[in-house]
């Protein structure tokens, strides 16, 4: 009985001793974000949020990516307003992706997109892959 108790106590102490190390590793990770959006009008608020998160997170801020999906891909035009937002996104180190499946479904030629936008094959899959890597996710 004493031997069993000693083994269990030792095992418990070893496991408890590992917990602070795991917590330390989590707190040192960079905070990465992905936003899946079906509305181009949300791009400006997303960029405002990216700026606020970078300030709030400080050195822990990592990356932010935006994935544009759905019918809104038809609204992506080379306009002065969008060009300004793309430039602002680049200044904030925000990567803007466009769903290739949505482009195909709604007949939008990827070559007609303004520069600064990245096309991913499947926006939803891409978002899930980033979540697997620890990105915090929001769909709007």
From TrEMBL:
Stretch forming the signal peptide: 1-23
InterPro entries assigned: DsrEFH-like (IPR027396), Sulphur_relay_DsrE/F-like (IPR003787)
Keywords: Signal
Coiled coil: none
Pfam assignment, any one: DsrE
Protein name: DsrE family protein
Classification of source organism: Bacteria, Pseudomonadati, Bacteroidota, Flavobacteriia, Flavobacteriales
